Each structure stands twice: as structure tokens, then as C-alpha cells.
Amino acid sequence: MSNHSPLPNESIGPSSPDADPQGEGRPLRRSLKGPAQFLSFWVAIALPFVHVPLLSRGLGDPRVTLAFFTLLVLNVLALYVGHGYNRE
């Protein structure tokens, strides 16, 4: 009995890393991934401490409100980038 399918499955790419024709930038990406995750992880931990003085001052001033929401967006971005830090 044969396991051959009459339809080709082109969604499964080659398993060899040498067969990737667009993999020219991957060594740079791999070398930057660890430090970027490390930095983002610790920035995501430290940024909430910057929110406390802004909140204690109040969000009535538009500049304080803008700074608060900018830091909040940066914190979410840092959480997204650094969520995989120190995982295998």
C-alpha cells in the first residue's frame, strides 16, 4: 500500500536550513533576538514604576496624559517583544 497523495502538498517547505533561499538575514536576526528580548523583558518590568509618579500627579494635564499613554504603549510593546525571554 502506498502513502502517496494524488495532490502535492506545497505548504510544507524544505526542512533543511540550507534550502532557504531568503535566509540571508537570519544570522543577524538570531544574534539580535536574545539581547532584544532581554532588554524588552526588563523594560517591561521597569516601566510600571515610571507610571506611579505620573498617576500620583494626576492625568488632568494633557502632557502628563500623553506621557502616560505613550509609556503604556511602550510597556505593551516591551511585553510583546520580551515575553519569550529565558525560555527554551
Characteristic key phrases:
single chain, 0% strand, 2 helices, transmembrane, 88 residues, transmembrane helix, mainly alpha
Short characterization:
This protein has 88 residues and is mainly alpha-helical.
Describe the structure.
The chain crosses the membrane at residues 36-54, 66-85. Residues 1-30 are annotated as: Disordered. InterPro entries: DUF8028. Residues 1-14 have a biased composition (Polar residues). 60% of the residues lie in helices and 0% in strands. With 88 residues, the protein is mainly α. The chain has a domain at 36-88. The chain is elongated and about 70 Å long. The model has no long low-confidence stretch (mean pLDDT 79).
Topology:
Elements: H1 26-57, H2 62-82
Helix pairs in contact: 1-2
Question: Rough shape?
Answer: elongated
Distance from first to last alpha carbon: 40 Å
Question: pLDDT under 50 segments (min length 5)?
Answer: none
In oligomeric terms, what are we looking at? single chain
Computed structural class: mainly alpha
Mean pLDDT: 79
- Proportion of residues in β-strands: under 5%
Helical fraction:
55-70%
**Helical stretch tally:** 2
Let me know the number of strands. 0
Order of helices and strands: HH
What about the largest sheet?
A: none
InterPro entries: DUF8028
Keywords: Membrane, Transmembrane, Transmembrane helix
Pfam family, one: DUF8028
